[in-house]
């Protein structure tokens, strides 16, 4: 998910000629046990470290841009999965 969000952030900056030198994106994942005791992913945090000189007027916009990540959208609205097995 971090890579996906990073591509959106990079594109945002390139379209506005904003330097990405010194910019970074860090993804952290938290796990929690469900009712049956199995660990599951419970939270994903993405931190965007903006470079010195990043325009303040774009701070909220860069977060909203990262939220457009396609992977995030799939996790929020998961597709149906179907698994089959076939012999030749």
TrEMBL record:
Superkingdom per UniProt: Bacteria
Pfam families: OsmC
SUPFAM superfamilies: OsmC-like
Protein name, entry field: OsmC family protein
Organism name: Geomobilimonas luticola
